[in-house]
Design goal:
This protein has about 375 residues and is α/β, with parallel strands linked by helices. It has eleven helices and 19 strands.
Length: about 375
Amino acid sequence: MAGQAPLPPFAAIVVAAGKGLRVGGDVPKQFLEWRGQSLIRHSVVEFIDAGASPLIIVISDQAEAYARSALKGLTGFTFVIGGATRQESVCAGLEAISDNSPEHVLIHDAARPDLPRAVIERLLGALETHPGAIPTLPVVDSLALVGDDGIMAGNAEREALRRVQTPQAFRFGEILSAHRTWNGETNASDDSQVLAATGASVTLVQGDERLKKITFAEDLMDNNCAPIFRVGQGFDVHRLVVGEELWLCGVKLDHDKGLAGHSDADVALHAITDAVLGAIGEGDIGTHFPPSDAKWAGARSAKFLEHAVKLANAAGYALGNIDLTIICEAPKIGPHRPAMRGEVARLTGLSEKAVSIKATTTEKLGFTGRGEGIAAQAIVSLQSNA
């Protein structure tokens, strides 16, 4: 960042392989939106600005699509697939950069999005005299020891306790060796435990309240977070020609003409897809499925809509309702409306009551009135998963 002195060289690992489901919903919390962008993006941007190289993002083998969407437009990092435990995931990240042999490495949890540069500076400074350093904060509340019966069994001295945060900083060779020799008999909740198990010293530096971990749904909500609701609109047109199939809302209709286009030209699903993409600021169908790409020739538009819904979920939103209007003189939409409504509900995960499909004509005016094509207009609402 302009005006800031460069930091000593260091590598960084952002651990984002957890399920993170305590926040609610099906999308891991690290890919949900917080303060206008995905949770993971905040700390990754800070590491990039601070000059971390190499920069490793450890993800699960099922989360690459979420991760790529969450970090879209950023460069300078590499994805690595993690393991069954946090320790295994960190070890995978360390092994991925072992050939680079960086002197220092910072290991950070993606669930801590607000990463002050001053903490990074303190950690790197501490590595001049210690093999490991962690940011901590004092415990300000009184603490009680609790027995198996749920009854208070004594007090804990808070003066001797600290709240531990990430990122945690290490001399690379020592933390890599510690992870390689970890016995795995106990679950390591952080990397300082792994290093300390070898007898190496871990020093404490001043942490920061901004490094709060996002754990529950309410943690995602503050005065600067994304709006609870979003609305998007989509509009599309395709020509009617002889010799083409006619697909509307994922349903094939019998008609003497069909819609022409690079895909199946389902104008209704295209309008809904663009509405979803517009609501989350992700462009349009052409952005994600360019007509210049031969692999989408004849593709079912259901794939486009499912992709848009997945992106909305990754951004922390679920569809609320869909209001679609199909504009044409023929065929008559009414007899097909129940099947269309059911298919759109299936593709989006909505109930049929949340899907409205209407049809109108232009009173013989314009290209739709002359039977030259069909148009569709859609409005969708999204609701935050938080």
